[in-house]
Design brief:
Layout lengths: L7 H13 L8 H24 L1 H20 L4 H29 L3 H32 L4 H4 L1 H15 L15 H24 L4 H23 L7 H5 L1 H31 L4 H6 L2 H18 L6 H18 L8 H28 L7 H36 L7 H33 L7 H14 L1
Helix pairs in contact: 1-5, 2-3, 2-4, 2-8, 2-16, 3-4, 3-7, 4-16, 5-13, 5-15, 8-9, 8-16, 11-14, 11-15, 11-16, 11-17, 13-15, 14-15, 14-17, 15-16, 16-17
Keywords: Antibiotic resistance, Cell membrane, Membrane, Transmembrane, Transmembrane helix, Transport
Membrane topology: Multi-pass membrane protein
Organism: Kitasatospora camelliae
Length: 470
């Protein structure tokens, strides 16, 4: 549900924009408000789960998500939809780390852990594509508002199941530590400034004073955040978690992979509907092969190999496969057939992402003390959501700038065919950048990740579980 909501409104966005009168300059905030609130608050959400118990925060996150979805579904003004999407992201930031923590603490046996995280990784990767399919179906046959209403029965049903099935893990007040609210403000503020500055570069240009102020100001806030976390007694982000090379390498790999993946969703959605003339449903269905590839790769390949081969031997080839998919798309033009251009790139990206997601998510919480699994879970989730936010803003800016520059050189720029050619040219330029990001991620993963499966991990997981009970 969480990952689905990052993309389900993509295909519904033209309908929602027309219905609520959202300007072209502001329409991106329907997506960015969600991913930014999610990514910016994940560290705080993970810490709340560590302090107040994951069952409680998981259930509250589900019910809050349902409420925010209902508010967005009945929105009558653009600001109402933006606010509801941000509220969805905020409750998702409480929900996601709790889910991953519950998974990590439940499965300690390496084989069971591999299967569980394989399923989790497949959902994390495939949920985005499923969101595009559901968005198309709901928009075409019902209404764009159902892209938000659909969360209500899912969330309420999951909350009832969690209340009856999950074991109570409430933490007594005298065992809790203070929340690092200044750290949350610094971290979230820095991320917000960077994403806002990147998105404003579309209309203002990279040299504009507001864009530069946001980018440098956001970087400065994040630097202060790191310094503050080193000195506070109760850090929102325990820096020793990030300094672990496997955890850090996995988070960087996922974050940079999501830059490419979310960029691909954005470009292919518009390519299918605007350039090729696909209906919303057909545009969504066109992503099915990538969804299938992610599921097969994560659950059928990565889950079976995770306990046998070093994690680097899965993550690095996965990033290279994804980069190969991007390289294929750089040859795209207005007349490119789906079967020979889009389909092969989707399959390469899907198989690659499945190999990246599952081992990276397992590394996120491997060997972490039970009272810090929420914070550790939030690191990988933050990388995923922030990577998606920055990816959409950055690649959209690059594509729009490349399109405008190309059209400026054309004498018949007003011709619809020429405009489509300009749009595809912009997509291709941004895809080259996404390919480069994935290649850099592969190098970083190769240098940082050195985890090898060992029989002792089962004993370590059992010991962690025993400490949690004690």
């Amino acid at each position: 549900m969480i990952v689905l909501d990052a993309t389900i409104v993509n295909i519904a966005l033209p309908s929602a924009q027309e219905d609520l009168g959202i300007s072209d300059g502001n329409r991106q905030w329907v997506i960015t408000a969600y991913t930014l609130a999610f990514g910016g608050l994940l560290l705080l959400g993970g810490r709340i789960g560590d302090l107040f118990g994951r069952k409680r925060t998981f259930t509250i996150g589900l019910l809050g998500f349902a409420l925010a979805s209902a508010l967005g579904g009945v929105a009558t003004e653009p600001w109402m939809l933006f606010a509801a999407r941000a509220l969805q992201g905020a409750f998702g930031a409480v929900l996601a780390p709790s889910a991953l923590s519950l998974l990590s603490n439940t499965f300690s046996d390496p084989k069971e852990r591999a299967t569980a995280f394989g399923i989790f990784g497949a959902l994390a990767g495939g949920g985005a594509a499923i969101g595009l399919i559901m968005g198309g179906l709901l928009t075409e046959y019902l209404n764009w508002r159902w892209c938000l209403f659909v969360n209500i029965p899912i969330a309420v049903g999951a909350a009832l199941g969690a209340f009856s099935v999950l074991q109570r893990d409430h933490i007594a007040k005298h065992h809790r530590v203070k929340l690092d609210l200044p750290g949350a403000a610094l971290g979230c503020g820095g991320l917000l400034a960077i994403v806002y500055g990147t998105s404003e570069a579309v209309s203002r240009g990279w040299g504009d004073w507001l864009v530069l102020t946001c980018l440098f100001g956001g970087a400065a806030l994040l630097a202060v955040f790191v310094l503050f976390e080193r000195r506070t007694d109760h850090p929102l982000l325990p820096l020793h978690l990030v300094r672990d090379r496997n955890r850090g390498g996995g988070a960087i790999s996922v974050g940079m992979a999501m830059v490419g993946m979310f960029g691909l969703f954005l470009f292919l959605t518009y390519y299918m509907q605007v350039v090729k003339g696909y209906s919303p449903v057909m545009a969504g269905v066109s992503f099915l092969p990538m969804t299938a590839a992610i599921v097969i790769s994560a659950t059928g390949i990565a889950a079976n190999l995770m306990t046998r081969v070093p994690s680097r031997n899965l993550v690095v080839p996965g990033l290279l496969l994804a980069a190969g998919g991007m390289a294929w798309l750089t040859q795209m033009d207005v007349s490119s057939p789906y079967a020979t251009m889009v389909l092969p790139s989707e399959l390469l990206l899907g198989f690659g992402m499945g190999l990246v997601f599952m081992p990276s998510m397992s590394l996120a919480t491997l060997g972490v003390a039970p009272n810090e699994t929420g914070a550790a879970s939030a690191i990988i989730n933050s990388a995923q959501q922030v990577g998606g936010s920055v990816g959409v803003a950055l690649l959209n800016t690059i594509a729009a700038s490349a399109t405008a520059t190309w059209l400026a050189t054309q004498s018949a720029a007003a011709d619809p065919l020429v405009q489509k050619q300009g749009a595809v040219h912009g997509y291709a330029v941004a895809t080259v950048v996404a390919m480069g990001i994935l290649l850099v991620a592969a190098v970083i993963a190769f240098l940082m990740i050195d985890h090898k499966p060992e029989p002792g991990e089962a004993a370590e997981g059992a010991e962690s579980a025993a400490r949690a009970v004690a």
